[in-house]
Design brief:
Blueprint (H helix, E strand, L loop, with lengths): L1 H19 L8 H11 L9 H11 L8 H7 L1 E3 L11 H4 L2 H5 L10 E3 H8 L11 H7 L9 H7 L4 H12 L2 H5 L3 H13 L10 H15 L2 H6 L2 H13 L9 H7 L2 H5 L5 H15 L12 H17 L18 H4 L2 H16 L7 H24 L19 H24 L2 H19 L19
Antiparallel strand pairs: 1-2
Helix pairs in contact: 1-2, 2-3, 10-12, 10-13, 13-15, 13-21, 15-19, 15-21, 18-19, 19-21, 23-24
């Protein structure tokens, strides 16, 4: 092993010398060879010093390089082999929850490429006062419902949660309430964002940032603001931030049918939601540099913790919200501010924020529909490969070759969105969202009537000049 390590170090030195001797970047062939040498060493936990070297090699590869795709395939290794970058003991640093995502039959659920990790975990976010002008300009629009989280995703190189979180948390006085510094909050946001899977097409940190944005938007509505206290507001923002942390890009049904250890741990009940809530607190309290709760009074922390857990668990889709007409949230202010109604308001708020894509402007709605469909396609493909083990196919309609995305969106809106958002609108007053919902529903209906199965209508056929 030492000979291979020496070879890797030698190749790194050659690359650096070659780079310094030329005006442009050196031949990336050296990078590829260095990566292959290190990958061949196998278990990084046996040689932790190699992990940092490995990440140095990967960081040399431009995001646009044609080498990225083949390297991602070669470097897709299970996190249980090493741990997070910079940890002194990689074997102990892997999240307990992520290991439990795996069952013997499902080795690929918790895999993440080293390239994705190098992007999300090596980059350190800058303080809010030093945000690049292009990002600051985008963030200036964050109070608008039509704010484009996808624009922020591109500008921040897929780290929108940290930047948006800093802006929103500052507006709501989160640091003051928690009695923590901005640097600690920034470290916490970075840590949480690093534990979202960038390889997921939908359940990644951009989705978390989108839900955080929607939650903040709802909290600014007069009736919501008048019904909740500051602890409720802070709990809502924190819950939105962590609500899908470490999501594997698979559904609860998938994990339960596969008999994953995580499903067994949580008795096949709200498996992922329980994991998200538990892991969020595990990650937070085990590192003093990220423990945003450490200065809170114990009783207040327990109240805040319970509120966060309750809201994260409320995002489980089979949990139906009672009182769908919103009537229990109306009436006298004293009634609206009762503990029972505040609990209902918070649950409704995060549930609506989590599935608000059909109420976004059309272009955002279309993009999110494509992303969630892609994640479901990937899940079905994986299940079909393992069908010989007697496992049922979850969500059979999401066959990449036959699925009608417009039909799936119409069904989703009919069965989950319409009643829930009519109830939320009746309380919070959200006419703009309801207009978007109606327009988007009409769009999907028009595609379905055209028998179009894709996200967009086919381009108009071009008539040949020679045709009569």
């Amino acid at each position: 092993m030492m000979l291979m390590e020496d070879l890797a170090v030698q190749k790194m030195k050659i690359y650096q010398i070659q780079t310094e001797a030329s005006e442009g970047p050196a031949d990336f062939g050296f990078v590829v060879e260095g990566v292959k040498v290190l990958t061949g060493l196998g278990n990084f936990a046996r040689a932790p010093c190699l992990l940092d070297l490995h990440m140095q090699w990967i960081s040399l590869i431009p995001r646009s390089s044609v080498l990225v795709s083949p390297l991602r395939e070669e470097l897709d290794v299970n996190l249980s082999s090493f741990g997070r970058v910079g940890d002194k003991n990689p074997e102990k640093s892997v999240s307990d929850g992520r290991e439990r995502l795996l069952s013997p039959a499902e080795p690929s659920i918790a895999s993440r490429s080293l390239y994705d990790m190098s992007q999300s975990q090596l980059a350190v976010p800058v303080p809010l006062t030093d945000v690049p002008a292009s990002i600051a300009e985008i963030l200036n629009k964050e109070e608008d419902w039509d704010f484009s989280i996808l624009e922020l995703e591109a500008a921040t190189h897929k780290r929108p949660l940290t930047y948006l979180g800093l802006k929103i948390f500052a507006n709501f006085g989160v640091c003051e309430f928690l009695n923590c510094s901005e640097s600690m909050l920034r470290s916490w946001l970075q840590m949480i964002e690093a534990n979202y899977h960038a390889s997921n097409s939908y359940h990644n940190s951009t989705h978390a940032a989108d839900v955080l944005h929607a939650t903040a938007y709802f909290l600014r509505k007069d009736k919501v603001k008048g019904s909740l206290d500051q602890l409720d507001e802070i709990a809502s923002l924190l819950a939105a931030t962590v609500h899908d942390v470490d999501h594997p890009g698979r559904t609860n049904s998938f994990l339960c049918n596969a008999g994953s250890e995580l499903a067994i741990l949580y008795n096949d009940t709200a498996v992922l939601e329980s994991h998200h809530a538990a892991l969020a607190f595990q990650l937070t309290v085990r590192d003093n540099k990220c423990n945003i709760f450490k200065n809170m009074e114990r009783t207040q922390f327990r109240t805040l913790r319970q509120a966060i857990i309750d809201m994260v668990l409320a995002t489980e889709m089979t949990q139906s919200s009672s009182n769908s007409d919103g009537s229990d949230c109306e009436g006298q202010a004293s009634m609206r501010n009762s503990p029972e109604n505040r609990l209902l308001i918070k649950r409704m708020m995060i549930k609506c924020a989590d599935v608000a894509n059909p109420c976004r402007p059309l272009e955002l709605c279309i993009e999110w529909a494509g992303r969630i469909s892609e994640e479901y396609f990937a899940q079905r493909s994986l299940r079909m490969k393992k069908r010989g083990r007697g496992l049922p196919v979850v969500m059979p309609v999401f066959d990449r070759n036959t699925c009608s995305i417009p039909k799936s969106q119409i069904s989703f809106i009919d069965y989950f969105i319409t009643d829930m958002f009519h109830a939320w609108d009746a309380f919070a007053g959200l006419p703009g969202l309801m207009e978007h919902l109606a327009e988007n529903y009409k769009y999907w209906k028009s595609l379905d009537e055209m028998k179009c199965k894709s996200l967009r209508p086919p381009p108009p056929s071009v008539t040949s000049p020679t045709d009569p």
